[in-house]
Input
Amino acid sequence: MAPIAEEIDNKFASYFSVILKYRRTYYLIVVTSVLCGLLFVNLAKKKYTATSTIFPTGQVSDIGMLAKVAGYMPVDFLNEGMIESSSFLFPDIIRSREVLVEVLTTPLEFHNGGQLVRLTPLEYFNGKMDDATILRFRKRIKIESSLRTGLITVKFTDKNPEFAAGVVNLLVDKLDEFNRTKRKFKAKENIEYIKGRLEDVRKELAQIEDTLTKALEQNRNYQTRGSPRIKMEIESLQREYQIKSSAYTMLAQQLEQENLRYRRDTPIVSILDRASPPTKPSFPRKRLLTLSILLVSLAVGTVVIFYRESTGRTGPPASSRLNIVSCVKEDIASLARFFKRRK
Output
């Protein structure tokens, strides 16, 4: 183990010696990179990210579920309630062309250049309504969904914090408006379907009722004197009558619920945190960017000095790791002499 440890120690000493040998090149790379990074951080245009948190509301009715199972409702009938209560479709709805066009053409009030202005996002971007504009606008929208809680976070980034907050709130409002409009449209479709189905069941029920009445009038004592065939026919008519009667009652209840749904104007989207103009920029992140530049410059500096060493280029004599303090003192003294001569 001792020879291995000694070998590792010698290699570390040789590597450290190379770094000290080209330390001034190392200084130059690191300082230049950090200064350029700081310059970029302070000159880069600040961007602000506004955030809103929403939660979907709504639920599927028990009658609708039973009707779906019983086969009295169409396949799409249950989907409306499922859409109301599910957050999975909300991100796609927000990114849809229909919602984005509505947002791009809706005026917003915000301060721009110290003045209160009223502009649509399309006018703010100086764009025209085409696929390219919608695509660029869609890319600036970030949506995060939580499968555990169902919470949805909507984000938008822009150089103007008030405009960013206005766009986020507009997206949430248009999402709720879209769902409410869809709910009314779907409820209207369901009302028309249920009315038609209710009329069909009413006719079938009246026909069965008439047939059952005639059968009972003709066979008043069928339970004691009737033949087995007549008993089976009457019992079959009675079962069919009960089924149709239950279906008619269920459809009548569902029609009343859909009428209430159509007249209802309650929000589908519950806003937990409405977007407000952010005070701190989301870009550039000064600390993170400066630290990243420092680490990259250290890595680049290390690669450069070892490349110079491997190519056999001459440099100052290698220094031992034991005299690092004297090397630093020498560099500080040289820097002081340089600035003294400049004066």
User: Anything to note?
Assistant: The first strand starts at residue 48 and ends at 56. Confidence is low (pLDDT under 50) at residues 59-85, 318-322. Residues 2-44+284-342 form one domain. The chain has two domains: 2-44+284-342, 48-273.
